[in-house]
Every structure is written in structure tokens, then in C-alpha cells.
TrEMBL record:
Domain Fibrinogen C-terminal: 236-386
Provenance organism: Albula goreensis
Designated name of the protein: Fibrinogen C-terminal domain-containing protein
GO cellular component: extracellular region
UniProt KW Endoplasmic reticulum keyword: no
Pfam families registered for this protein in UniProt: ANG-1, Fibrinogen_C
Region feature (Disordered): 1-24
GO biological process: angiogenesis; blood coagulation
Coiled coil: 128-208
SMART domains membership: FBG (SM00186)
PROSITE patterns assigned to the protein according to its UniProt record, in alphabetical order: FIBRINOGEN_C_2
The UniProt record lists the keyword Coiled coil: yes
Length: 386
């Protein structure tokens, strides 16, 4: 410590002095062969030994001092490290608190975002349920449309089948008509020849018919004056077997009214004959004037006919069938509106099928005031209850 350095220095000087003395002894010593005294050598050895012990003590003292200082330095270092660790811990605590606050903010944001997502998920779920209901409804509608489509396809197939049948019937009818046309052409040519031969006799026959009509008129007048006129005109009609109103007209009866026609040799029917329209001789099938008769009738009533012949009536499908299938007939349809405007359709050929064929009727038309058609019309009869 404080006195160590001077002692060291003193020793150093003493040792240095010892060296000096030794050198002096060597310098002053006699030449080789001079003897030293044994005591002096022992003394020097003793001094050297003391120096050695002293040096060892100094070395031990230095080591002890260094050990103490090292312990103090270590203690100071530990203290400084502890303070640094405390400061670091405080800093870490501050940082941890800041990070905790930030994490809390983040957690709050996450919770808010989660809440929004849950709300959105709920809304999406509601929308999905609505869409599922709409999809189910549309699926049901599509199923219904499929059913309707199947029904329509079935109807279309049925219509196509009927159309094919009708086309086949028309082809057969066309062949029949062509054959009939050929035969009728020959007949017409023959009739034209006969007409040419009969033209010369026509004037004489007309004069005879006129004379006969005058005679009948005179007889009717005479009977009327005598009070005996029991339907002479009616008996004259019945004596002639008229097939239709055309025969009635050809017989000289030119007033519209109810006449008797012969369906067969034993069966007669009363019909209304129109002797004024388009040259007369029309057998009236249907007549509607003022709506006094209800035409919403059953199949049976349309078959047999209904109404009053002198007023509104339907002649009857069965009678129409019997008439149109023994002669060739034309059909004229007249329509009049409330203002008195009249329109008509004229069909050159007309006939009605049997009840077995649902009174199917066919018309061939050329020209009229309503329309112009060149197609065959083939239709099943249907009443209001069909």
C-alpha cells in the first residue's frame, strides 16, 4: 500500500547497492587465486535470502491487494449490471405495457370487426334463405311449366295425328272428287247436248206451265168464293214429292214460307223455304232474328232440331245429313248488323257427315263479301255442351 512502494524502492536501492558493492569487490578483488572469506559469502547468502523473503511478502501483499480490488471491481460491476438490468427491466415493462395497450386496441378492433362480420354473416344467411325460397319457388314453377309443356306436347301430338288423318281423308276425298269431276264432266257434256235439244221445247213448256198456273189460280179463286178452299195449295205441294226448296221453286212456288219435303218415300219434313234471296229456292238450316230462342242446347236437340220454322229455329243435324248426302248443295250464310248492313259467304259445295262422324261438315268456298278462301274446311260439329 502506501509504504509498499518506498520499501520496494529502498530494497531496490539496497539491492542495487549490493550489486555495486559486489562489483566493487570484484573490481578490488585480487586476481585469480585470491580467496574470499567464507563469512562474507554466508552473509551475502543471508542477505539474498532476506531479499527473497521480502520479495515474496511483497508479492503476497500485491496479490492480496489485487484480490481485494478485483472483488471490489466485481462487486461494482455486479451493482452496475443490476442497475442496468433494473433499467432494462423498467424499459421492458414500459414496452410491455405499450405492447399490451396496442394489443388491447387490436383486440378491440378485431372484436368490432368480428361483430361486423357476424352481422354480415347473419344478413348473408337471411339472404341465402330468401334465395333458397325463391329457388324452390322457381323450381316448382319450372316443374309446373314442364308439366304444362308435356301436356301441350301431348296435345300437339294428338293434333298432328288428327291433322295427318284429315290430310289422308282429304287426299282420299281429292281422289274421289277428281273421279267425280271426270264423271260429271261427261255428264255435263251430255246434259249440254240434251239442253241444246231441249231448248227448242223450253218455250212451249213455259207457256204450258203458265197456263197451268193460271188454271190453278182460277180454281183457287172459285173455291174461295164458294167457301171451299181446304189448303188446295198445300195438297198441290203434297202431290208433288219435293226433295228440297229448290224443287219447290222449280214447281212454280215463289213465296217464302213453310213447305213439306220428302226425305224418303214414307218420311216427310217441314222446312222454311227462302224464295227471295239470290234467286230463291234456299232451304233454311238456321234462322235467328230477335234472340227469342235460346241456342244453348244439348246434343240431342241439335240433332233433331228446335225452334219455330216460321221464326227462329235450327233445322237439325240429322236432317241436314240426310239432305246433303243425296244431292250436291251450296251453302249461303247471311249476317245483318243492327244498322241493317248485310254481309254473306257463299260455299259452292257443302255437306255434313253422320252422327258417327260427329256431324263433321265440309265446305268449299270461292268468293263472298266477307272473305275469299280456296281451302277445304273440315270441322267437327260441337254444341255448347260439348
Amino acid at each position: 500500500d502506501g509504504g509498499g512502494a518506498p520499501c520496494w524502492d529502498g530494497r531496490a536501492r539496497t539491492r542495487a547497492g549490493g550489486q555495486y558493492d559486489g562489483n566493487a569487490l570484484q573490481r578490488d578483488a585480487p586476481q585469480v587465486g585470491q580467496d574470499f572469506s567464507e563469512q562474507k559469502i554466508q552473509r551475502l547468502e543471508h542477505i539474498m535470502e532476506n531479499y527473497t523473503q521480502w520479495l515474496q511478502k511483497i508479492e503476497s501483499s500485491i496479490r492480496e491487494s489485487m484480490r481485494t480490488e478485483l472483488a471490489q471491481l466485481q462487486h461494482s460491476a455486479v451493482h452496475n449490471q443490476t442497475a442496468a438490468m433494473l433499467e432494462m427491466g423498467t424499459s421492458l415493462l414500459s414496452q410491455t405495457a405499450e405492447q399490451t395497450r396496442k394489443l388491447t386496441d387490436v383486440e378491440t378492433q378485431v372484436l368490432n370487426q368480428t361483430s361486423r362480420l357476424e352481422i354480415q354473416l347473419l344478413e348473408n344467411s337471411l339472404s341465402t334463405n330468401k334465395l333458397e325460397r325463391q329457388l324452390l319457388q322457381q323450381t316448382n314453377e319450372i316443374s309446373k311449366l314442364h308439366d304444362k309443356n308435356g301436356f301441350l306436347e301431348q296435345k300437339m301430338q294428338e293434333m298432328e295425328s288428327r291433322h295427318r288423318e284429315e290430310l289422308e281423308f282429304l287426299r282420299e276425298e281429292k281422289g274421289t272428287l277428281q273421279d267425280l269431276l271426270k264423271r260429271q264432266t261427261g255428264v255435263i257434256q251430255e246434259l249440254e247436248a240434251q239442253l241444246g235439244r231441249a231448248t227448242g221445247n223450253n218455250t212451249a213448256l213455259q207457256r204450258q206451265q203458265q197456263a197451268l198456273m193460271e188454271t190453278v189460280s182460277n180454281l183457287i179463286s172459285l173455291c174461295s168464293r164458294d167457301g171451299v178452299a181446304p189448303n188446295i195449295t198445300k195438297r198441290a205441294e203434297e202431290e208433288r214429292k219435293f226433295r228440297d226448296c229448290a224443287d219447290v221453286l222449280q214447281a212454280g212456288f215463289n213465296k217464302s214460307g213453310v213447305y213439306t219435303i220428302h226425305i224418303s218415300t214414307q218420311e216427310t219434313k217441314k222446312v222454311f223455304c227462302n224464295m227471295e234471296t239470290a234467286g230463291g229456292g234456299w232451304t233454311v238450316l238456321q234462322r235467328r232474328l230477335d234472340g227469342s230462342v235460346d241456342f244453348h242446347r244439348s246434343w240431342k236437340e241439335y240433332k233433331t232440331g228446335f225452334g219455330s220454322l216460321s221464326g227462329e229455329h235450327w233445322l237439325g243435324n240429322e236432317l241436314m245429313f240426310l239432305l246433303t248426302n243425296r244431292r250436291q248443295y251450296a251453302l249461303r250464310i247471311e249476317l245483318t248488323d243492327w244498322d241493317g248492313h248485310m254481309a254473306f259467304s257463299h260455299y259452292d259445295r257443302f255437306y255434313i257427315g253422320s252422327e258417327k262422324n260427329n256431324y263433321r261438315y265440309k265446305m268449299l268456298c270461292h268468293g263472298n263479301t266477307v272473305s275469299i278462301c280456296y281451302l277445304h274446311t273440315l270441322v267437327h260439329f260441337k254444341n255448347f255442351h260439348s
